[in-house]
Amino acid sequence: MGSKKARKRAATPPPPAVAPPPPQKAPPLRNTISEWTVTILLLLFATSTLLQAFVVPTGSMTSTVLIGDHLLVDKLAYAPSGPLSRYLLPYGGVQRGDIIVFRWPLDITLNYVKRAIALPGDRIRIVNKQVYLNGKPLEEPYKQHLSSSIDPYRDNFPGLPNPGVHERAREMLEKHVVNGELVVPPDNYFAMGDNRDDSLDCRYWGFVPRENIVGKPVIIYWSYDAPTEQLANPNPFAPEHLFDLAQHFFTKTRWGRTFKLVHGYPIH
Q1: N-term to C-term CA, the chain
Q2: Distance of CA 230 to the CA centre of its chain
Q3: Do residues 96 and 142 make contact, with C-beta atoms less than 8 angstroms apart?
Q4: pTM for the predicted model, two decimal places
Q5: pLDDT single digits (tens) 12-43
Q6: Three-state secondary structure of the chain
Q7: Exposed (0-12), middle (13-18) or buried (19+): which is 91, by Cβ within 10 Å?
Q8: Is 68 exposed, middle or buried (0-12, 13-18, 19+ CB in 10 A)?
């Protein structure tokens, strides 16, 4: 009986062999190029539409933002909202106390970073370094004064302009001062640096037009202690800057500021 079963099992043919899968072919070069092209286009879209890298070359915002801070600027923060995007994206208007990046009205190829102090319709004046907004003194924990001396124009504003005031600011003073206060016109903003004694801001070259505002900084992705003349150079590959980086990258990088968030301060 056992032998019959053994012969039956022995007579059962083995299962057919499964052919191995054909070897995978390497993707053609054309596909690789297409993938990289799409990736590059997405990165360009993100950096041109969503975010923009910006380096701070001057000390007008010290100590909130330092010379050599490299910022990522949210370009959608103040973007005009459409019928659908207003429900999908966090658009908003400029608020008092926001830190803003904008194209400098005297040369729109240059980006400036300042703090928005007054909005359209606001009244502003400065008395012995104290800022008054709509008749009330402002509490500004972010500002600093490095000089105890009083400058007649800088620290008592609006007033008789000094020779360093641009013609655009002189026109602002002629047309928009009412009862000793500067009144911000529609679609314009008044911005100043936090380092009040060393800031060339709206006091010296006039209002910031709404269309000049690029966005607001959200994070410091790198901070490097370099001089203004290197950071202001439009050529990032200038030999002196590259040489400085090669020598001092680890010692001049402010590691404690890496990925530090940048926040405004509400002004009421």
Answers
A1: 101
A2: 19
A3: no
A4: 0.79
A5: 555 555 556 555 554 555 555 555 444 444 44
A6: CHHHHHHHHHHCCCCCCCCCCCCCCCCCHHHHHHHHHHHHHHHHHHHHHHEEEEECCCCCCCCCCCCCEEEEEECCCCCCCCCCHHHHCCCCCCCCCCEEEEECCCCCCCEEEEEEEECCCCEEEEECCEEEECCEECCCCCCECCCCCCCCCCCCECCCCCCCCCHHHHHHHHHHEECCEEECCCCEEEEECCEHHHCCCHHHHCCEEHHHEEEEEEEEEEEECCCHHHHCCCCCCCHHHHHHHHHHHHHHECHHHCCEECCCCCCC
A7: middle
A8: buried
Place of tokens 């060339």: 200
In the chain, the domains with their CATH numbers are 39-261 (2.10.109.10)
The two structure tokens encoding residue 191: 């911005």
pLDDT in tens, 211-260: 999 999 999 999 999 998 888 887 778 888 899 999 999 999 999 999 99
